[in-house]
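User: What would this chain look like folded?
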Amino acid sequence: MPTPIPADERRHAHDDQRLWNESYYLDWFTEDLLLGGYLRVGYYPNLNTIWYWGCLVGPSRPLVTVIDHEVALPADPQSLEIRHEGLWADHAIETPLEHMSVNLEAFAVSLDDPAETYHGVRGDRVPFGFELDFFTDRAAYQWPPLLPRYEIPCRVHGVVLVGDERIDVDGWGQRDHSWGAARDWWANTHTWMAGRLDDGTRFHAVGGFVGGEDFGVAYELGPESSAFTEGTTVRIQTDEGPERLPERTHMAFCDLDLEIEPIAFSPVQLIHPDDRREVRFPRALARFTNADGRSGGGWIEWNQLMD
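Assistant: Here's the prediction, encoded as structure tokens.
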């Protein structure tokens, strides 16, 4: 199994595919699952824009979210700093494959109903920011050669600011970096997730690209181990509720058999830049329970094609 290359933490040169994309995702959650958040920086150089998403969620608090699909590309093709009206964010590789820091100063929208992100994102405007550090938890995982991509389980520390509220963060998370292909959200479904069980087991899986097929990419990282167990079979079953927000998902891969309960959503609506087709992209802080009784938390997402 190859290991990620430290130089790949940088941004990459793009080709001429219209939807060529490079993205950095960073998720985090507290061990008690009362708080979580994520950010995504998606570079679309052939659309001359960045898609930026950032949020704070919790089961007993409103969704606070920034969703901006019109952020200007930086002049420097290696820069990870972005500036836009009401939004500044910076992302620094402090030590390749070991430590990444992220910072945000923005105005966000507070929503009592997360599904409002599908209907115009109308809510209360609130100052929102964070300073978070993601430290690698033991090892980084290089994907098989389907797509240039790696996933890194992390320990997360820092602070989140919402209005007058200051929240100290000491939790867990996941970051990933992918590039080198068109990110055509409107072509296929998928379900992605990553998390941690209470004994220290880390895991990641993605699948559901084609209905009725169990092909996927997955790993399991046992407690105190730095050796990944890989899997290429990912079985997925999801029950959806109102607004197609999933109510439960079952995923089985490697030696894990997980029931996944979404507990706080941060969805995004994706509109095709040419023909205006819609994809719904709910992401959720979730509780994971394995068949043997171990439990934990993490994040899960579903890419949902709409008729």
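The radius of gyration is 18 Å. If you want, I can go into more detail on any region.
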